[in-house]
Amino acid sequence: MRFIKMGLGASLAVLLAAFGCGSQSSSSTAAGTPTFNASRSWADLQTQCNFGTRNPASTGKAACLAWLKSTFALYTTDVEDQSFSFHGDDGVTYAGDNIIATFASASGTTTTPLLIAAHWDSRPVANMDPTPANRTQPIMGADDGASGVAVLTELARELKDFPHTEVWPLEIGKPVKW
User: Fold this and answer.
1) How many other CB atoms are found less than 10 A from the CB of residue 20?
2) How confident is the prediction for the chain on average, in pLDDT?
3) How do residues 121-177 score in pLDDT, each as one tens digit?
4) Which residues of the chain form beta strands (DSSP E)?
5) pLDDT (tens digit, 9 = 90+) per residue, 91-100?
6) CA atoms of 76 and 159, how far apart (whole Å)
């Protein structure tokens, strides 16, 4: 995708700092292990799609940007909007935004950062759609941008309740230990 020329693209980055042992005090599970809530994540995906397409200069993009910033502000005080401009393939200059939410470790320091990112925008045209009539229409981006962001919003909820305390490997299908 040519819009990647703009750095991270219009992305959402969650910066984490990972450290040695500490205690947790949340009740996601009886054992104090964070759990991924698929229903909440699905609702976040639907919310993004309800704004409409999130292509550059669209009202859906502006509404989603406001929602993302306010949503991440519920889980961390460190939310940054990194605005930029870029030239599209059509010669038009567009405005873009990276949203960066930073979560400190349980110890409050940030010596070993971990970046987890997803793009939240959607493509301005479906130029590869099998139906020629759709090739000039914007893409909703539910399975592209919105799904990754839905995972990150759920992860942010868990990071608020479970500040990570050690470097951990992520194994799909197994509980995450922080």
Assistant:
1) 11
2) 75
3) 888 888 889 999 999 998 888 887 899 999 999 988 888 877 665 444 444 444 444
4) 11-17, 78-87, 93-103, 113-119
5) 888 888 989 8
6) 9
Count, in order, helices (H) and strands (E) of the chain.
3, 4
Identify the residue whose tokens are 């450290």. Answer: 19
| Domains parsed from the chain with CATH numbers | 11-20+35-161 (3.40.630.10)
The residues facing 113 across adjacent strands are 17
Instruction: Report d(CA 176, CA 67) in Å as an integer.
Output: 27
Q: How far apart are CA 63 and CA 141, in angstroms?
A: 15
Cβ atoms 10, 97 nearer than 8 A = yes
175 Cβ partners below 8 Å, 6+ apart? 29, 33, 34, 35
d(CA 96, CA 13): 14
Greatest distance between any 2 Cα atoms in the chain: 56
Q: How many CB atoms lie within 10 A of CB 96?
A: 21
- Is residue 122 within 8 A of residue 55, CB to CB? The reply is yes
* Degrees to nearest 5, angle at CA 56 with 72 and 122: 70
